[in-house]
Amino acid sequence: METLAYKPNLSAVIDRLRLLYQGQAEDQIFAEFEIPSVALREFAQQHPEGFCDYLDPEERIRFWDRLWAERAGLEDDSIPAAYLSEMDQGLYGGLFGGRVQFLAHPENGWISSMCAPLLKDWEELNQLRLDQEHPWFQRYRRQLEVFVRHAAGKFAISHFILIDSLNFCFELVGATNTYLALEERPNWVQQAVELAFQTNVAVQETFFDHVPLLAGGTASNMVGWAPGRVVSESVDPFHMTSVQYFEKWGRQPVQRIFDHFDGGVLHLHANGRHLLEAVCSLRGLRAIFMGDDRGYPNAFDIIAELKRRAGVVPLVVQADFEPFVRRLKEHTLPGGVIYKVRGAPDVDTVNRLMEQVRAYRA
Length: 362
Prior knowledge:
By secondary structure, this protein is α/β, with parallel strands linked by helices.
């Protein structure tokens, strides 16, 4: 069994998660905990919220090393993994000449990226070609190489988000023009979705060429770990559409890329919860991260209902420490769920609590 210096109980955690994805742990609960972090405090001091430059990958991987070294004593269900947040969205637009902007997130240590719409008109789509020697692809490969080299034996590298289907169209012409084109210029949308598939396959194949599997699976910032070469998909554009639009425009691209790899994971924001039953029927779906947003009940507060709707598909929800502990003691936590718990005081408290988590049966 593989080992990681920053996760001494890796084997036990993988064994537990494997049961979850095999559908054999519907009565069990899983928990990842956040504890106070010196690395995050220092990051916030050095990188206040706002626009910033692309940071040297050597500096970024040192941050992830410090962060996970602090958490090495945690005996929870988390998998220590660095995230290529710099590539999270901007890579896909940058590859086609877009102007990429970076943004510092002191709350979690990310440097995210986004890109303004590339095209003035859909006709310009005919000029776009994927070039794997483009400077942005070279930057991507270099960051992978730096991350893999420094993380080896200590922590994993998480997969990162796909920008395909309508998300890719957003990169090209913006959201409004994309939605209009679904009705007025559907052939252009179909052409863009095909380019998106080829681009995302190239990006993700490059990831798996560089990043070794962890115990036969993929580390995931969304769901911790899942077996096989698993991608992280987004159906965000369909949060603002009906389920029927997802069925017409969203299902096939997601299914196609899930089939190309070994399945995938999804996240749903609060305004996309109406899609839950539809996405749960995707072949190869491993788990869904349920996000929280202002104006909607937190997923943790309605987790019993969400889990009922999701069936055997594992869900991941965020919870604050005290409410989680209270419901753990009350024995009211649904099984088949990974709980990402914020605000735990220290390692010792978490490890004592994990004894109850591992023993819990719904």
